[in-house]
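Appendix B. Chain record.
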Amino acid sequence: MKDRLAFDTRAYIGSNSEEKALAIQLTAYVREASEGAKIIDRVNYYRLKKILGKDGQFKIIEPDLGAKDISAFYVYETKIDERESSAGIRMRKAVIEGIPDTAMVWISPSGGESDYQEGRIVIQINDSSGADCYGICLPESFTKFLEVSERLTDFLKIDPVLEVEKLRETPFLVSVSEEEFFYLMKEVMPEFDELWDYISSGNAKSRKGKVYRDAQWVAKRVRPMIASARTRVDFIMAGATAEQLMVSRGHKIGASSCGVRNIDLLSSSSPLSASLSIRPGTASETFGGKKFIKNCGNCGKKLNRQMKAGDKCPFCGGTYLGC
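Structure tokens predicted for this chain:
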């Protein structure tokens, strides 16, 4: 679980819209993992579309990410992945069925068997051609996941979900109009009235702004790293570079409810970070003459960024001499 990435660049291989997909997902990731931001500023809106494939079977795609079915993005590397992907399969089925006046609520709590410091909710409003979806990060202080589940199951008149890990794999189907649905969410989670008003007003659909513009700039520079990547460490280096560049443009990327940062994985004691230290001079460690530097050799401050000879430490002004 510790090595599960919040932003995995392996998802952006072999797509005609790879650069756009990378920018879209980097925007979503940075907004959701933004340190100190209000909960409404971390809502990630995306649209799913139902299309008929050449084989006569329906595909569910996120148009901004290309023509891949969303099931191609599911991950099965850990038990948590399996549970969350199981929930994804059920939510995908609801989009295929396309029953108007239905919504799905999926909750992935913090704690349990996960390392998540925050929980996450996904709201999916279904219609005949697809679904409007909202990824919502819950503050670390919110821990009443099973209470929320109990209120929902009471409304739905179904058996309650009594375990955190069972809840993680159990999205709830609610058969009400969109307007009624948000009234229900206010009853179920009254702590977040402002959030439900923000989403139901349509404001969440239009917010990209500076984060997206910066993500486009970063995607253009990181895409060649992804295209040339061969090992998992190469992809992690690409992800760490994307994170560093977004930080350099003023975005604070903190803990995510979806996994760890690439930067943290490189600087941790995991086997992946260890593999970097015993393979000096490889493409996995360096790119374009730069090397990933964890700490300043002069003042000891944590840097976690790629540097080339001549670059200066932002804390003490010391010069990196290269190696």
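Further analysis of this model is presented in Appendix C.
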